[in-house]
Amino acid sequence: MRIVQMSDIHTGTPLFRPELLKAAIEETNALAPDLVAVAGDLTTEGYRWEFEEAKRYLDRLECENVVVIMGNHDAKNVGYRHFEDFFGSRSCSMTLSVPEGEAKVVALDSSEPDLAEGEIGREHYPWLDSELRGWDRGPKIVMVHHHILAVPGTGRDRNNLRDSGDVMALLRELKVDMVLSGHRHVPYVWSISGVRVIHSGTVSSLRVRGIMAPTYNVIEFDSEKVEVTLRQPGGEEETLARFSRRAVTTSEIYPAFERFVRYDKAQV
Ligand SMILES: [Fe+2]
Ligand SMILES: [Fe+2]
Q1: Pairing of strands 101-107, 140-143
Q2: In percent, how much of the chain has pLDDT > 90?
Q3: Stated pTM of the model
Q4: What's the gap in Å between 147 CA and the centre of ligand 1?
Q5: How far is the centre of ligand 1, averaged over its atoms, from the C-alpha of 95 (Å)?
Q6: Under 8 Å CB-to-CB from 102, ≥6 apart: which residues?
Q7: 8 alpha carbon to ligand 2 midpoint, in Å?
Q8: What is the distance in A from the centroid of ligand 2 to the CA of 267?
Q9: Residue range 176-183: mean pLDDT, rounded
Q10: Is residue 80 scored above 70 in pLDDT?
């Protein structure tokens, strides 16, 4: 399957560059992906007009499966109310037919009103568990705005997911193939015990870090490999990471996750 991952659109700031977003959307339409994952921070202050603007652009995406999640900026000024008006539920689960079978996509809202930090929260683990445990029909994909793992080249690490350790261990236990995140404005990929944690940069703003340009990710996932390509809207592209489809694990981890966090496992 092919995924286009973009995040941190950031309308509403003078550093927003509409021509970059237009280019990324045109290129995405040409790529005809199975899924477009928009990993949060559509806006800067969470104002309605900012969501309107983001929505106007995203409506140009021709892909049938566009999943949009909240970022911390979208939760400012009670922006989540506008998000729901324009994009629907803040968390959702969907399945989509892909060449590898049926992919399961679970999108989570990690934002907290007016805070830069994020959290999934233990009360949401049973739902996450029930959606993904035992899913063997195709790729398992989770979307969450905040970074679960630290991203290099972003300065002092801050504002990561507050329950990142618990969430990462849960994702490993559920054998999630990919986590799609944004937030740090630097593209980077970690692979831990077969969980590929893929961060996208900012697609359409100059809120960049160091020499990193605005970019988005194109992910190719098939029976052999997972390949992540970094693309500058209207510009160059380069390979960001490449993995074999089958996870290479060199260690077994004990004890059970339950020793650290206990939650009701929903029936599947
Ligand atoms: Fe952002
Ligand atoms: Fe963010």
Answers
A1: parallel
A2: 87
A3: 0.96
A4: 11
A5: 27
A6: 95, 96, 137, 138
A7: 7
A8: 33
A9: 97
A10: yes
CATH superfamily of 2-259: Metallo-dependent phosphatases (3.60.21.10)
Radius of gyration of the chain (CA): 17
Query: 13: which 2 tokens?
Result: 């700031």
- Six token digits for residue 94: 């969907």
Q: Check pLDDT > 60 for residue 28.
A: yes
Distance CA 165, CA 63 (A): 34
Distance CA 45, CA 83 (A): 12
Q: Say if residue 132's pLDDT is above 60.
A: yes
How far does residue 184's CA lie from ligand 1's centre (Å)?
6
Strand residues in 76-131 grouped as ranges (E):
92-98, 101-107, 111-112, 115-118
Spacing, Cα 72 to ligand 2 middle (Å): 5
Say if residues 41 and 9 touch (Cβ distance below 8 Å): yes
Return the number of other C-beta atoms located less than 10 Å from residue 124's C-beta.
Answer: 17
Nearest-ligand number for the alpha carbon of 71 = 2
Closest ligand to C-alpha of residue 7 is 1
Spans of all domains in the chain: 2-259
Tell me the C-alpha distance between 92 and 131, whole Å: 10
Q: What one-letter code names the amino acid at 175?
A: K
Query: From the CA of 72, which ligand is nearest?
Result: 2
Q: Which two tokens stand for residue 27?
A: 């290129």
- Supply 14's token pair: 């003078």
CB atoms near residue 32 (< 10 Å) = 10
Residue 254 binned pLDDT confidence (cut-offs 50, 70, 90) = confident
